[in-house]
Amino acid sequence: MCGIVGYVGKKQAAPILLDGLAKLEYRGYDSAGISVRDGDKDAVIVKAKGRLSKLADKTDQGRAVPGTCGIGHTRWATHGEPSELNAHPHCSDDMNVIGVHNGIIENFQELRQKLIRHDYQFYSETDTEVAIKLIDYYYKKYAGTPVDAINHALVRIRGSYALAVMFKEYPGEIYVARKDNPMILGLNEDGAFLGSDVPAILKYTRKVYYIGNMELGRLSADGVTFYNLDGDEIQKEITEIEWDAESAEKGGFEHFMMKEIHEQPKAIADTLGMYISNGKIDLSSLAKNGAVDENDKASDPEAILKEIGRVYIVACGSAYHAGMIGKSVIEKLAGIPVEVSLASEFRYCDPKLDKNSVVIVISQSGETADSLAALRLSKERGIPVIAIVNVFGSTIAREADYVMYTAAGPEIAVATTKAYSAQLITLYILAMKTALLKGILDEERAKGLMDELAAIPAGISKILEDKERIQWFAAKYANAKDVFFIGRGIDYAIGLEGSLKMKEISYIHSEAYAAGELKHGTISLIEKGTLVIGIMTQNDLYEKTRSNMVEVKARGAYLFGLTSYGNYNVEDTVDFAVYVPKTDENFVASLAIVPLQLLGYYMAVTKGLDVDKPRNLAKSVTVE
Ligand code: G6P
């Protein structure tokens, strides 16, 4: 996601800030900004949309903004388009409080309204401007210290954040706070540094403090002081970073793919936070594009969902696999038929689209050529399009009637993991909202489902705790020539994604089959030792797929069985069993995919392959 840096000390701040931001470029961004204070003078804020080099040019490589205390930010848009106005730092009108922020503030609309009632004005569409003005409000209301003001604000803010803030009346000081977003503070003889990630400050110091959740810090040229939410000072140990610069970029993981696999709990929690608040699904943040005519049928997403009789999902690659899960969940929960198409097929098959329908285009990048063409075709035919997109302001996001953003943050590994997981979450939410609007789902069951969704991040963390078991298995089977994934219904769709992960990064031939189709051909490929992965997470299909596993075992296959805790009799059939935590069957793909991502990953690592950049593949396919 976004990047934060800060410095206060004996040196000029701006060049250090620009250098730190450059080290965070790999995380992806669309605009950047810095704020520097020169002694007691007013701070200066400079921002630029686009590349960091633009900000460097605008500030004459930092020389045009003198001062020894400052903060900086690279922004990956989540609330509001990429623009100079939305770029950070943000400030109160009198420049009393200036700050930068990473994360998502879930209740920012509510806080914005509160501040408007207290005569605050807003210029950007960001949640960050709300946070900064809220701190300013409490600073003035209680006339206390910066720590008091930030604490008051934090009590009101729901969501995740890493904040770095400067106060006019405290020149030479930077205040920081965090919850569920990374931030480290570092020290050397020249001053104190802060960064949202290790690479930002690694050039200057390896001596760092890790600030805990809901803790605050105060940086000055003399060092760093920490506080708890009560404003009491707390002590922290300094730690020495041993990573080299490259592993620092990967947060200590060997590859971006593994880092992103571990970021899935957060990607899911953040995506849930965007659409569920106070136990209600709120699609008001569904960005409505200017192209939508207010009098048109496509003017109210909820009205559309309430009335629709059919859904078409169109996507490519893993996004298509997410769509297959979405089909199952929408059909089961909302009771309407869903057709899922590969975008590259959809656009050429002269699709017959029902009038009373909606097209959902799913795309991480928002730039995939075939998905974009499918979107344009659907619009030409007068069908409203909802895009599920990860990259803010991308072409698909701009051209769709409505956009449901996933909050996965920038994904760097070619093989998608966290974006796919976030796509699943948006599809579950759409399915539930449609079912609620149609009166098929009652509030009580919806609440139960929301509780299950809220538990998914912890479920994934639990699976990741046991990843060494998968690593061991992968090392044993990395020489496999062919691997087959079998399952029925949602389990088949999970198999398709598991198989894609395996083949694209480990170059092992793998195929996913609907378990019932095995007997119609594929079973002839089973030989002694062929690895077959059976996915059995659905109660009513469990025994059916298990008996298909028995059939391939009789022909010599080696069986990997993936199911939920409780189904322990799977061990009577399979050679290697993997369990995922129990959840509602509609949502189980979000858990079951994780061991399969790990399996593909570890197979590729065992074979010494370039996991993050597999041969012949591109992250974003902008050609047909
Ligand atoms: C490429 C990527 C896949 C992705 C697919 C669709 O093949 O390697 O990870 O699923 O494109 O991309 P999109 O950006 O539209 O989701």
Descriptive key words:
single chain; Glutamine Phosphoribosylpyrophosphate, subunit 1, domain 1; Rossmann fold; 624 residues; seven-stranded antiparallel β-sheet; eight-stranded antiparallel β-sheet; alpha/beta; globular; binds 6-O-phosphono-alpha-D-glucopyranose; 23% strand
Describe this structure in words.
- With 624 residues, this protein is an alpha/beta fold.
- The chain folds into three domains: 3-247, Glutamine Phosphoribosylpyrophosphate, subunit 1, domain 1 (4-Layer Sandwich); 251-464, 3-Layer(aba) Sandwich (Rossmann fold); 467-606, Glucose-6-phosphate isomerase like protein, domain 1 (Rossmann fold, 3-Layer(aba) Sandwich).
- Helices cover 38% and strands 23% of the residues.
- The chain contains 20 helices and 28 strands.
- It has an eight-stranded antiparallel sheet. A seven-stranded antiparallel sheet has the order 5-6-7-8-12-13-14. A six-stranded mixed sheet has the order 18-23-22-21-19-20, sandwiched between helices.
- A hairpin with a 5-residue loop joins strand 7 (159-167) and strand 8.
- Helix 9 packs antiparallel against helix 16 (443-465) and helix 11 packs antiparallel against helix 18.
- The protein is globular, with a radius of gyration of 25 Å.
- The model has no long low-confidence stretch (mean pLDDT 93).
